[in-house]
Amino acid sequence: MPQAIDQPDIIVIMSEGFWDITNLKGITFEEEVLPNLKALKNESLYGYTMVPVFGGGTSNTEWEVLTGFSKNYLPSESTPYQQYINGPSFSVASYLKKQGYDTLAMHPHFPENWNRNTAYPYLGFDQFLSLNDFTNPLKERNLVSDYTVTNKIISEYKKYKSLSNHPLFTFVVTVQNHVSYDHNNYTTQDQIKFSAPFLSEDIINDIKDFATGIHHSDDALGKLIDYFKNVNNKVIIVFFGDHMTTLGDSTFKVFEETGYISNSSTNSDEYYKTMLTPLLIWSNYDSESKDIGIRSSFQIMPTVFQKYLLTMPAYYELLCEIQKYSNGFTNGIVLDQESQVSSSLTQTQEELYRIQELLQYDMMFGDQYSKEKMFE
């Protein structure tokens, strides 16, 4: 692969419960819900990430993003952070650390959640900032706000750059928009205004909370980008949601009432649509605008490395090769290169995903015969 001339700083933000509600029909908002995300598409790679969970299980999405591994090859009820991260493990953080990066993880909630305080060091992070490291944070919905997180990302970036000449990899998991939703979380004056005459009252009440929250998250993202547009160092920012969420008093009710999916929500042709969250890949030195369609969450970092010509492990090259033939694979649902649900794997897809499965097994449960050749 081509070599990068110099190493950019990389910030990856997984935004809690962030998905694009404007994709649902029958809801008319009085203002743009995600104006910054929409505007940034003009200078970014953008699309959707296909995540392995719905409504919860945040750590499974972040595990896929950080490791490039897939939940497809593990028991459906498993949680890798709690069951399989028992020692030093491959991740983008551990890989970049060997490339000379400082590595920072940040999550403004309890460090024990999903066993992050144990998993992050094993995944190669030098430092983990949790709720304990946020002094008198501004809260929203009784949780640390995304505005606070934006300010923390910037302040930590400044601190690292004042102390070190190393490039910095920062991985952030927000918490502001965590379920469950309650219209009383925002005053009527603060709530984003909309009309949805055909939706149930319980859904409408949840939207008042949810849409306002992601609107503020979008604003915080805009403020973050505005800052990093003007720094001298090369910076890449990756932003995506961890999973979609339930609105209303039953799991898929809002999606069924808006016609986003039919009542037969177990149909894989539609079910995958409940696992799509916005994906944005921006940098302050390359303003190409390109719709990259759908990427499995384990494909996000290889996409970043490929786009910005970063030196990548051979395993990432495999994932980039897979991307030529399949845009997504999770929970047994496979998308072809046109993002259409396929009833079965083609021979090429099967061969490539089988290689991924074998490499993942070797690194997680085997003797790591492939480590030196594929992951370093």
TrEMBL record:
Bilayer disposition of the protein: Multi-pass membrane protein
Region forming the signal peptide: none
Annotated Pfam families: Sulfatase (PF00884)
Ranges of residues in domain Sulfatase N-terminal: 8-306
Chief subcellular location: membrane
Disulfide bond as UniProt keyword: no
Superkingdom of this protein's organism: Bacteria
Location in or out of the cell: Cell membrane
UniProt pathway: Cell wall biogenesis; lipoteichoic acid biosynthesis
UniProtKB keywords: Cell membrane, Membrane, Transmembrane, Transmembrane helix
Any one annotated GO CC term: plasma membrane
Entry keyword annotation includes Transmembrane helix: yes
Classification via PANTHER family: LIPOTEICHOIC ACID SYNTHASE, PHOSPHOGLYCEROL TRANSFERASE I
Protein name per UniProt: LTA synthase family protein
